[in-house]
Design brief:
2 domains; D-amino Acid Aminotransferase, Chain A, domain 1; 29% strand; alpha+beta; binds pyridoxal-5'-phosphate; ten-stranded mixed beta sheet
Length: 364
């Protein structure tokens, strides 16, 4: 059976997950382990442009071993969430910002730009069809993973002529095991994440592949995540592998590294800057050096630090370590400014607080 949902053809999964099994899965979904019954796909070819938009059963791709994405990593992705609102309906948070960033990433990886409306429509249609998969427990959501891969089967180093855009959905609980405890960060002297002129401000899988050795180093040293320093001076704090960072000072002001091309422009980052300013706080987008961070944490000038991104929303940073030294931020726990900003953002995302900036995109 096939029906039309606007631009999208709908081919229901003939054997969807049994409702009782779904309830069990939704009780403790973890992160990115459980996937819903359907996926959205849109194909691109040089001849046809964007075509064959469909919501169908989630299934494996059949791709030639020579497919470009396997060899030269021409791949980009997004991460966003659908939240359950108090009235039982669902909402996306700033999906237009994800759509625009997806275009920015595509341009950097020499991929075609998916029109904003088509990106949002793919996500909307999928979430509406999978609405029974949106968990409603505190801290949970339906995480959406739009991505695009180069699908031409050829080994030449060149932009692919064909692409596949796809969105899959996965119900998620808290991102970090241990819930809202403060995280311990590792500063690597050996690895950097992004160089000037590189792909640091594109959301591409290659950046993540390059961060894994550093992440393994962090785990070996008893830390949770890496905080990367700039690739040139190895001094300026940039971001985590997948989250931006903020610093909170004794005088109540906030600081976050500026978007100079090596840092991913987080939508959570942008939203928190706006919310903090709404609350009357001063927010500076200025570079911050790792030695200054340590000195300020030791003197008490710096009172809190946190990381932020869609997956974990806001995570306090409790400790920072490298091969020579280690220091604690504040008392090593979640501070009041971090907690307040997190609650303010989550309140808007989950429809419990008023949405002054029009960020919440309600689904019918
Ligand atoms: C996705 C991502 C972020 C966070 O972006 P959000 O839009 O807030 O989810 C930060 N840094 C990197 C490297 C990322 O890939």
């Amino acid at each position: 059976m096939s029906t039309s949902k606007g631009t999208f053809r709908f081919e229901p999964n003939p054997s969807p997950c049994d409702p009782s099994e779904r309830y069990t899965l939704l009780e403790n979904p973890g992160f990115g382990r459980v996937f819903t019954d359907h996926m959205a796909t849109i194909r691109y070819s040089e001849a046809l442009g964007w075509n064959d938009a469909k919501i169908g059963a989630r299934e494996a791709f059949r791709l030639e071993p020579s497919t470009l994405v396997f060899h030269y990593a021409q791949e980009i992705f997004e991460g966003m969430k659908a939240y359950r609102l108090p009235d039982g309906s669902a909402a996306l948070f700033r999906p237009d910002a994800n759509a625009r960033r997806f275009q920015h990433s595509a341009a950097r990886l020499a991929m075609p730009l998916l029109p904003e409306e088509l990106f949002i429509e793919a996500v909307r249609q999928l979430v509406q069809i999978e609405s029974a998969w949106i968990p409603s427990t505190e801290g949970s959501a339906l995480y959406l993973r739009p991505f695009m891969i180069a699908t031409e089967a050829v080994l030449g180093v060149k932009p692919s002529s064909d692409y596949l855009f796809c969105v899959v959905a996965t119900p998620v609980g808290a991102y970090f095991k241990g819930g809202s405890a403060a995280v311990k960060l590792w500063t690597s002297e050996r690895y950097s994440r992004a160089a000037p002129g590189g792909t640091g401000d594109a959301k591409c899988g290659g950046n993540y592949a390059a961060s894994l050795a550093a992440q393994a180093e962090a785990i070996r040293h008893g830390c949770d995540q890496v905080v990367f320093l700039d690739a040139v001076e190895r001094r300026w704090v940039e971001e985590l592998g997948g989250m931006n960072v903020f610093f909170v000072f004794e005088d109540g002001s906030l600081q976050t590294p500026p978007l100079t091309g090596t840092i991913l422009a987080g939508i959570t980052r942008a939203s928190l800057i706006t919310l903090a300013r709404d609350m009357g706080m001063t927010v500076r987008e200025e570079p911050y050096a790792i030695d200054q961070w340590e000195a300020d944490a030791r003197s008490g000038r710096l009172v809190e630090a946190f990381a932020c991104g869609t997956a974990a929303v806001v995570s306090a940073i409790g400790h920072v370590k490298n091969s020579e030294s280690a220091f604690t931020v504040g008392d090593g726990n979640v501070g009041p400014v971090t907690a307040r900003l997190k609650a303010a953002l989550l309140g808007i995302q989950t429809g419990r607080a008023s949405d002054a900036h029009g960020w919440v995109h309600r689904l019918p």
